[in-house]
Amino acid sequence: MGKLIGRFAIFGVAGGIVLLIIIALFSTKPEPQRANAAPQPVAVFVEEARQETVALTVHSQGQARPRTQINLVPQVTGRITYVNPSFIEGGFFEAGETLVRIDDADYHLAVTRAAALVAQAQQGLAREQAEAELAAREWADLGEGEASALTLREPQLADARAQLASAQASLQAARLDLERTRVSAPFDGRVLVKSADLGQFVTTGTPLGEVFSTDTILVRLPLTDNDLGLLGIPIAYNAGPDSEGIPVKLTAVLAGEAREWTGYINRTESAIDPQTRVLYATAEVEDPYGAAAAGGAPLAVGLFVDAEIQGRNVQNAVVLPRSALRGENTVFVVNEGGTLDIRTVTVVTSSTDRLVVSSGVGGGEMIVVSPIRGASAGMRLRSLDASGDVLPDYSATIETETDEEPTETESEPSDGEAVASAG
Questions:
Q1: Coil, strand or helix: which one is 164?
Q2: Contact residues for 136 (Cβ-Cβ < 8 A; gap 6+)
């Protein structure tokens, strides 16, 4: 029993010593420094807004097609006896050049028969004229009063004249049929499709092929209502004979190279498309296989092209980077001193790299082009240019609060006092 009491006494003394050591450590630990709770400025990239006159452009797409495209069909019946070597898919031909010739033997005979009928009718008319003159002289010598038309053979003379006119018309028709055995096109062009060949028997209306003119290529470009506003043209636009129209640059990648052609929009179509709600404008490229060929590459029929149309000029417009736009019409502006200002702007047009506005922002103002989380008016900012350098005039500075000097009553305890306190 005495040994047990002695062990409890030893444990009690050791616990008291440990408790004193813990109290001494807590009483001598340093006071925690107060953290500065003032918010730090948010770093953003900015660019200066530029005020200038902007030439607006409208972008569209379309397919090249010929101004004139027709089907070649014969007007007479017969067997094809000649085919022009150029009458093949992709072949070039000139206006009036014979492309296909049909056997004309029967039509030469028809001309000969019609010419004989004309000669007979002429003889008949001459005979009737002589008889009419003889009847008139006889009546003048023997008759009394006014002679009747039948007595003077006027009906017979009129019939002879009609017979001659009919024969002459038949001769003209035979000659036309003979000319129509030669098939040609009334313009310079190219062959798109060939449907008949040498030796084939064709009738009136049988398709021989499809050809198109090469003088002008048309591109049908869809324009929205906003596009019409950027171009500044009415819905019923027509350039007229004294104006070339609105310049348009057509581009496409052809044979692995970027090609460019210049054309002009000279009219819009008469109605808005009821399905797409767009109005189509027609761009014309003159001489696409000659002077307008880009680097020797003509504007081929069927090619899809991108169109850049020159629009109206906007005076005193403000140009911003495209990344400056927030939502539909909001821009963040940094005021002098580094505070954020949220502006509502009027957007005239935008592209992948720039934004053109007409109000809300002035030239020379600093525009935020980097993302900001939780943006609010008056937020403090630290502005950086494109190279990452700080712009002092457009950066906020925050004063750091310093700790007060300790007074005598709040001075740290001396070593002796600390030891005494621990004891």
A1: helix
A2: 147, 152
DSSP-assigned beta bridge partners for residue 367: 47, 333
Please state, as a whole number, how many other Cβ atoms lie within 10 Å of the Cβ of residue 252: 19
In sequence order, the 6+-apart residues with CB closer than 8 A to the CB of 417 are none
Cα 152 from Cα 317, distance rounded (Å): 94
The dihedral through the CA atoms of 37, 43, 44, 49 has a sign that is positive
Phi then psi for residue 301, to 5 deg, are -65, 135
pTM exceeds 0.90, yes or no: no
Convert the pLDDT of each residue in 13-67 to its tens digit: 566 676 677 776 666 666 666 555 566 888 999 999 998 888 888 999 999 999 9
Structure tokens belonging to residue 358: 């007409």
Cα 39 from Cα 379, distance rounded (Å): 10
The Cα–Cα gap between 264 and 246 comes to 5
Q: How many CB atoms lie within 10 A of CB 326?
A: 16
Rounded Cα–Cα distance for residues 307 and 57 (Å): 10
